[in-house]
Amino acid sequence: MIELDGVEKTFSVYVKRGRLRRERQDVRAVDGISFQIERGELVGYVGPNGAGKSTTVKMLTGILVPSGGRISVAGLDPSRRRIQLARRIGVVFGQRVQLWWDLPLRDSFELLRHIYRVPLDRWRANLDRFREVLELDAFLETPVRQLSLGQRMRGELTAAMLHDPEILFLDEPTIGLDVVAKARVREFLAEMNRERGVTVLLTTHDLADIERLCSRLLIIDHGRVIYDGTIERLIQRYGEERTLVVDLEEPAPPLEIEGARVVRVDGPRQWLRFRRDDVTAAQLTAAVASQAPLVDLAVEEPDIEDVVRRIYTEGL
Q: Dihedral sign, CA of 26, 59, 51, 171?
């Protein structure tokens, strides 16, 4: 459904040199990206600010023309076949509004029906389904400018899906949402992917979205893909450190255990960090019990946020 082969995007910027002189510089936002996404996949696309995520999405939707390489979305060249492609994709930019600001939400949906030329019965069936899943009825007659951020985002997702797109591009769709609104958005995306086979490319800084929704993760940095695989393989490969949390009978100085190091002490509770290749949790527990009476313990596995942060900061 989506294919990129050696895609590049270069922007020209002018940098001040002296009081009156400016110098032109070329900045490469995307630097030779290649990947493929199959029909029905739900893929997370993450990276630090300025890594090239939004630029990639804009090229995939035809908003930007690549400086080099080849892009195919649903068998079409996005920059040359924008009208044909628009009928087959849905797009949500978390910080952009595609709804009409002064109109009630229902009127925006009606206008989109005419823009996309969606048959009335199909439009009504889709809207009824989305009203139920996203709980839209309470604010369907409210002007968009009066909606809360969570309500507007539910409206944006509905607007992007009314014409039954095959592919959904989401750029920060949960930015600024509260816990309840995020949960509704995640449930909706998972259901659309499961029931309708919609292919989803999700760009976000909220790694909880990725962990709950995506079977595959793409990490981009400095315009290049540095990881392409499952979340489980990422954690196994880069999250080699685990944490043993022990509750002792009474407070004690940091334990000295071979193969582990104490990273935190809070009263009788201590956190011991260890590498899975050096020692097992069972061996570590036995060593702790030989030094101090144990009340309780737990093993914490590294989470995706810690692993991705290490990749960014340590250049893994």
A: positive
